[in-house]
Amino acid sequence: MIGRIQGILVSVHPPRLLVDCQGVGYEIDVPMSTLYQLPEANQKITLLTHFQVREDAQQLFGFATETEREAFRQLIKISGVGSRTALAVLSGMSVNE
What is the DSSP string of 13-32? Predict the structure, then answer.
């Protein structure tokens, strides 16, 4: 599993980031709460991640804090709540809520 990624923020196209890590570009989906904490493009960035493997896709999700990542993991355990819904929930409220 990929638990953390550190690299250079190349571009931001909400909700997706492109992070260059040693010449490999990783597309990472993030909640809006993480987007608001990002540095400018071409700056160093570190994100905690959740790597999801499904039959039809492999996705990498990034979070600014451990609390945010854990909230995402708890949300996707709920029946009927997928990763996109969990990101939307985190984007619409603070983790403390």
Answer: ETTEEEEEETTEEEEEE--H
